[in-house]
Every structure is written in C-alpha cells, then in structure tokens.
Amino acid sequence: MEHQRRWQGWVLVGPALLVTLALFAAPMVMVVLTSLYRRSGGLTDRTLSFDNYIRLATDSTIHQALWNSIEVVALTVIFSTLIAYPFAYIVAYKVPQKWQALVLLLTVVPFWTSYVVRSYSWLLVLAKNGVINQTLVSWGIIAEPFTMANTRFATVLAFVHFFVMVSTLTIYASLRQIPRNLGLAARDLGASPLSVFLRITLPLSIPGVVVGAFLTFVLAIGDYITPQIVGGGNELVLPQLLMLQVSRMGDFPLAAAMALVLLIIVAAVYAVSAKNLTLERKR
Amino acid sequence: MKLVRSGLSWVYVLLIFGFILMPVVSLVVFSFQATNLPVPPFTGPSLRWYEALFADSRMIEALRNSLVVGVVSGFFSTALGFLAAYGLARYRPRGARAIRAIVMTPLGVSYLVIGFGLSVTANELALGRSLVLVTLGHIIINLPLAFAIVLSQMRDEDENLEKAARDLGAGEWTVITRVAIPVLLPGIMAAFLLSFTLSWDEFIIAFFLADFDVTLPIEIWSQLRTGLDAKTNAAGTLVFAISLVALTLAYVLNRAVSQRSRRI
Amino acid sequence: MRKTQLTVSMAALSTSAFLLASCAGGSGGSATSSGGASSDAPQELNALVWCDHTDPELLAPFEEANNVTVNVRDYEGTGVALGILEQSQPGDWDVFVVDSVDVPRVAEAGILAPLSKDDFDFDQFFSEVQLPEIHELDGTLYAVPEKFGYNTVAFNGANVDAEKMRDLSFLWDPELAGKIAIYDYYIPVMEFVGLELGIEPQNITVDDLPAIEARLVELKAQSAQVGDVVSTQTALATGEVEVIVGGGEFSTSVLNAENPDLDWILPNQGGIRWQQAIGVLADSEKQELATKFVQYIVSPEGQAALATSSCYWGMPANKNATLTDEQKDILRWDEQSDFIANSYPYYIPDADLDAAMLDVWTRVVVG
Questions:
Q1: Is B40 on the interface with C (CB under 8 A)?
Q2: ipTM score here?
Q3: For the segment C245-284, what is each residue's pLDDT rounded down to a tens digit?
Q4: CATH of A65-276, one of 1.10.10.10, 1.10.3720.10, 3.30.420.40, 1.25.10.10
Q5: How many CB atoms lie within 10 A of CB C20?
Q6: Measured between CB atoms, does C162 come within 8 Å of chain A?
Q7: Predicted pLDDT at A3
C-alpha cells in the first residue's frame, strides 16, 4: 500500500518536474553552451571556446556595467528597506487590526498599473517641466527646475518606489508573527519601549527584512525596463549591456556569458542569505 | 509624547502613500489630456485618447492576447503547482526535498535570463517565436509560486478528511476533485490570481518570445518607442481598471468560496 | 453544491475576461492576423523597417486595397536588422527598409532580391538621391530610395540661439552643459563629431578614433542623456534638454504642431545626410506582393504618408509626393538643394572599422 502511494506521489509530482526540466533546466544548459560559442564574421561560430569568459574578465566596459548594477541595486535595497520598515511597523502595530488588510491593499493596488507605463510616468513626473519641478518652482522653494530624470537618481527612485511595496509586505508578515506577549512580558519586567524594539521586535523581524531585501536584489539586478526608460542611457547596467549584445550586436554567446554572471551573482547572494530566507514561523 | 509619535506616524503614512501614488495619479490624470503630450499643463479633460485606444486594433489585439496568455498560463501553472504540492504533501515520495528545490529554482533566476534562455533554445530547435512560447515562459515563472502557495495551505488536519473519503470507498481522483480541491480552493484561487497578474504585465520574457502577435506590455513599449502621446497613458489606466475589476471579482469569489469551505 | 459554485465562479471569471476583450475589440476590427478561417482571409506581408514605417496611416491604404496585413518590426541601426535576419528562417521576412549606404553590402550578401527597373519611374525622384552606384549591383536594381534627412542638431529655438548653433563647436560650450541629448546611433553621431575635428566622414580611419573618442567623452559630459528617436524627442519636448546632437527634422517635425520653436539646422561644418531605401528579400515567398508594397511606398501618396509618418518625418525621395504647403515648409522643402550640398552622406566603415567604432561608442555610453 505504501509502495503504491509513493508511486502515485511521483505521478502527481511528475508533470511539474518535467515542465521544469523542459522549460527551465534545458534552456539554462543551452545558455551555458551558447556562452562557449563565439560570434565571428556576423554569425555564431559553434566551436567551443572560453573567449567570452576571457572577455568578461578583461573588458572594462563590462566591469563598469556590472559595477553600475551593483551600486544601483545596493542603493535600492538600502533605501527600500529603510523606508519600508517604519511603514510596515506602523501598519502592524499602530493601525487598528481590522484596517490593516485594507491599508496593505491600498499600498499594493497602485502597482496594478502597467509596469512599462508606470516607469514612463516617472520619467514625466521627474522631468524639468514635470509635476515635481513645476510645484517646487511655483511654491518658491527653488528658483530653477533641477534635473532628476535620466539619472541614476531616477532609476533608484523608480526602483525604490516599487520595492518599498514589496519590502513592506514581507516585513509586515514577519512583524505579525511576533507573539504579542513577548513584548508585553518584557515591559512587565521593566524594559523600555526602545529596548523592546531593539532586542525583541527588530531581531525577530529580520527574516522579513532579509526576504524583502533578497527579492528586491534579484528582481532589480535583472531589470531592464526601469533603467532603460528613466536612466537616460547615461550609465548602463548589466541587463542593458546584455540587451545591447542581443539586439545591436547580435552577439548571443557574449550575452549568454553575461546572463551566467547574473545567475552566479544571485546564487551567491542566495547562498549567503539562505538561512534567513523563510517567512514561516519558527516553531 | 504619544500624541506626537501618533502624529508622526500618520504623517509618515501619508508621505508614503503620496510617494506611491504620484506616478499613478499622473498616469491617470494625463490619460485625459486634450493635447498630445502627457506633460503639464493639463489641458483636459478629454476622452480622445481612450477613443484612440479603442480604435487602435493593435492595442486591442494585444490586450486580448495578454488575457488569453494570462488565463492559459495561469491555469497550467496552478494545475501543475497544485498537483505537485498535493503529491508532495500527501504522498511524501522519496527525495521530497530535492523535488521541492527543483520546482522552486526558477524563482531565483531573473526573468531576463529565463527569457533569453528560452529564446536561444527555441532558435536552436528552429521553433519560431509565438504566443505559445510566451505562454510556456509564463508557466515556468509562475509554477514555483503556485506550488509554494498551495503547499503552504495544505494542513495535516485536512488529510483526515481525505482518509475518511478513501475509507468510504472513494477513488483517488474523486478524493482529489471532491475533497482536496474544494478545501484548498482559496489557496488555488490565490495561486491562479497571482499567476495571472504576473503574466498579464510581464514584459521581458514576452519580448524575447513573441512574434507579431504581441502582448499588451510589448505593444505599449512599441508605441512608446515610436511616438509620443497620451494614448499609452490611456492604455496604462485601462490595465489598472481591468486589474482592479479582476481583483475585486477574485476577492468576492474567494470570500464566497472560503465561507462555504469553512462549513466543512 | 460546491462544485456548481466552483464551476460557476470559474465560468464567470473566464467569460468576463473574454467578454471584456471581445466587446472592446469589436470596434477595432478583428479580421486581421490571427486565426480567421474564412476564404478571403487577408494575406500577410512581413516587413523589417525603421520605426517610421509602423504608422497605421501609412500602411492602411495598401492593406485595404490589397487585402493584406502588413506586419512590421522596427529596428534602430542596420547591425540590429542584420541580427534579426540572422535569427530568422528564410521566408520569415518579405520587405526590408535599410539605409541606402548599407545596400551594397546587403545586396552582395544575397539578402536582397533583384528588382526590375521598369516597375519604377526614376524621373520622379530627386536626382541627388537616386545614387545608382549604391542601389544597383552590376546594373541590377536591388533597392529603391524612399526617404532622406539629416543627422545634425535639433534644438529649442526659444532657449538656444540659432546663430550660435551654426558653429558645431558650440555644442561643447559650457552654456549648454547638461542641456544636450545625444541620439543613440553611433555611425552618424561619431561622423558628426569627426566633422567638428575637421575629418570628413569618408576619410575616417582607425587612427582618427582616439581623437573622436576624446571629443565624444567631452560631449557626453555635457549631455543629460543618450537615447533613441522617441526618448530624445520627449526630452526636447519636455524641456529636459535644449539640443539633440544627431537630431534633425526627424526629431522636431513631429513635435512642431505643439511647439513651433523646435527647430533644426545644418552647421557651417556640415551635417550628415541619412537616406533610406526599400527592397524585397531574396528569400521572400511573396515577391510580387512585396514589390507591390515597394511601389506603393514610393508612389506620390505613399511618399506623402511616409514623409509625415508618426515616428519621425523626413524628405520623400519622390518629388511628386502629395504634401501640403504647410508640411513642405516644416520640411524646409525649398532649402533642400543647399542642405544636400552642405551635408555628407553616411560613410559606412568596413567591418573592422565598424566594430572599432561600436566599441568606442559602447565604452563612452556605458559610462
């Protein structure tokens, strides 16, 4: 009976595994293989070689793009977390329980607009004669409109806009799982509110922070649209350089090598944070 | 002191909401612009861009394609994810941890890489780009999520229900369709809704895999690259409206279904 | 009971989705590309083009007259187009719009199909754009000129002195710091920068590249952004920048109606002249239909629509294009002979120089 059950288990799980194999594992193998090809004379040369990896190691343009990516994403993670944490805290502890779901919903709903159009809207909001500049000038706060669009600032801002929402949700989920009585017990024993926060709330909410930061990192470092639309082509990040290889140079082998770099970076970050990457209540 | 802190909290919340809403409000407001450019000053209100949008057969077709791809890929992601979660939780096959790891892996890979990988593979197999490929791409990115969501909803207590059904003579298929699925329906619907949403607005994978039949994000992107006017604002607002409708519908259905499930 | 509820819910969800799509699509006319099994389902023609050919107003007359759907994919830069062709199967594409200066190498590579000169009335074309030496190979016609314009400077006349713009060196003046957008197409912009250094495009060699790169880096330091046709147009229109380097009438004419101050000029050092040609692909399985499309594009009506198409405007190759006087004014129709005299056609470098130029460009842009 057990034997039959195990076998049936595989039948149920099988389709998902096969789909993952066909639509994920195989393409990833293909990417690795392609990275070992070369582009020469306008065509893809299928002889295996490490040319692209040598190029990755030596080409300063690629290093620069990679560095741009890391800086932009690091800034995004830091600011998203810093801005989201107080917000999540307020929603979890200061907003009456029955309104909490609604507040979170209102936080999420604006992101139901098209990502592409929303990014473009940021470009127009940040423009020299966009809403922000025009308001600041008409209120007399600044004399001349200042440049915000087409800069790294715009890219980070647009990213933070989205990822504050993501981190708020994960940090909120973590905060909600902290048993109320822990804080209450500590207060009874004479701890100050600040102490409760620093020694109980904050440490126990770290999983939420880490999950949010990880999601932010993975999604932002692979994002092509936001930097492309609001960044102004002033400094390119790795996804843009990859797309440049694909569309302008037709150099799929080099693009494949870059894709692997992205993969490895994410895997490395995952390995470092794996322990904390769960929102399940620690029993 | 507490009042000040309370006040500060409210100011902070308002600031956050202001920040979040800024581009969205701008998007919606300028969709009613009367002149061409979606920048201040506001010269509306005018419906001309919505008229232009609905007369734009390419946009409407892209919208239709997005809905179809969203529903189909959402269905398959959810179905496969449900079956895998159910199989894993109830049958506990050997290597359960490995299975879980394999199914979840695509989550850690950027969409850019997945799209690129699928496109390179399709090219090697001389498979032309198409909406079918886009659907497949969306299935693989949503399968892990659907799987995780359904798995997190499976409780040990519900297993007794299934055991009872089996004791009463029900076959496996009946157990699944008449006991497991109804009980898990809120989770299944959440998985479907999430899969649909992520597919519906997904750009980069569709960009790599679509041919001339495009999805809405691609058409919006194309139009943004070939002309500057407020029609894309109208499209963005429309996407927003549809998402709101779908969300409300799903919320209402979910409550109706959960209430019935709880009566078990 | 629950099952009925479930079925009804799912049915409601899917039906509402499809209803929404269909009733919205009803007015849009759906008999086009996907799925129609009717006997007179329209044929399809696939065209690889610059974005000015994606305007529905350009395509609609041809589509209606011939019961055809023209599918378009746009690209920026011949290198991109060649990459797309390489990734495609034979027969995937029927029509190719390509820069005139690239026609020789594309024809030699066997990508284009030979055309019959009898199908076209060359008397209608401006003599300066006919250029048989690049559109023909061994006396056989491979592509027909269709549109031309300039990569020079476009600017906001309200905020920038047009007289100052007549000197190319003004672009590097501190007065314009942070107010420039650079059009992201390496060949014309690098050649334009070369003009400022006194190097004519056809004389550019690898040895000139370091000087050009240095000047380009200085220009980038002056600029607020590097972007494609539409993002540079947007930047100029929203006041983000005052000048587009590499821009021209193709940047400003589209915006002219809303802001007549947006203008363009050829500096004393000269500008770069771009020219597009259109041809049929050798692998196309619809040669006749594709040729018909080419004929439509170079006809007076097609040329008028192409000259004023939504992505960017430009001069039609056909003198008889049915443009209004107002449109001709915006295109500076009467000044064209002067402009042509004062501009240099793109010079397309050989493969090695091309790769070197692209490397320089990528280095400068990545920052």
A1: no
A2: 0.86
A3: 999 888 888 888 778 899 898 998 989 999 999 999 999 9
A4: 1.10.3720.10
A5: 17
A6: no
A7: 59
